Amino acid sequence: MSEHKKKDVFNFYSDDLFRQIVDNTFETTVLHADYKVVYINETGARLLGASSEELLGANVLDIFLEESKEAIRERVRCALEEQKAGELIEETIQSLNGTQYEIELYCHPFEFKGERAVLSVFRDISERKELQRQLKNKINEYSTPIVPLLDGISVIPLVGNIDEDKAGMLIENLPSQIKRYQDTRHIIVDFSGIYNIDEVVIEFLFKIEGIMKLLGISPIITGIRPELATNVVRMGRNLSNMRTESTVKKALISLQVK
């Protein structure tokens, strides 16, 4: 076989092998020029709920949520005009049937038929992210336990930082925890171990106090430092209707515990 023939055969099998490999990888691979899809592998087509042929010519921005489109448009511009690869980011996309997926996305400049294009590669991480959320939920649940002290009296010792995620988890989980202690009449919520003194903590303070009252529990808030009290007043909130004590010990004394 001549060298020319060998080269043709090599190119044929190489192209075919390359196509099979790319089509069957776990990652979605999309090549797009002027925001239009010129190639998408089978993995990506399945994820988006269409065939590769049906997706040719589709606008790549259409799969992104409205609030993300401007940032994605800027990434594409940098890849095309500045030849800059986009760093790995996490985004949410939507398939043709409306199913949303959380993905890791990477893109870089690519030349296609002599023109500038962008090669985007992303992986579905929805399952991993859900497991992370469940783990964080459990960590928050166990890191903020309800501790029974005496008959009808428990304490919740809050420790560390409370960000929006943790505040949301606590508000969601505490009612179910409270139900485990059906004889509990009073719960002391101690804020002395909280590091951050900000609006998130203040909103959490009022929400958790209100939830407990709705559940028939008499809450006592302890450990409110001067900075937190000052911020509460600055925000125009009123602590006068909230039962507070400086320490857990004083709260127990106020409940006539000897």
UniProtKB/TrEMBL annotation:
The molecular function terms of the Gene Ontology recorded here are: kinase activity
Give the SUPFAM superfamilies listed for this entry: PYP-like sensor domain (PAS domain), SpoIIaa-like
PAS domain ranges (all copies): 14-83
Name under which the protein is recorded:
Histidine kinase
Keywords, comma-separated and alphabetical: Kinase, Transferase
Every STAS domain range: 143-255
Decide whether keyword Acetylation is in the record. no
Short name of one Pfam family: STAS
**PAC domain boundaries:** 87-137
**Gene3D superfamilies attached to this UniProt entry:** PAS domain, STAS domain
Q: Which InterPro entries does UniProt cross-reference here?
A: Bact_StressResp_Reg (IPR051932), PAS (IPR000014), PAS-assoc_C (IPR000700), PAS-like_dom_sf (IPR035965), PAS_4 (IPR013656), STAS_dom (IPR002645), STAS_dom_sf (IPR036513)
Transferase recorded as keyword: yes
What superkingdom does the record give?
Bacteria
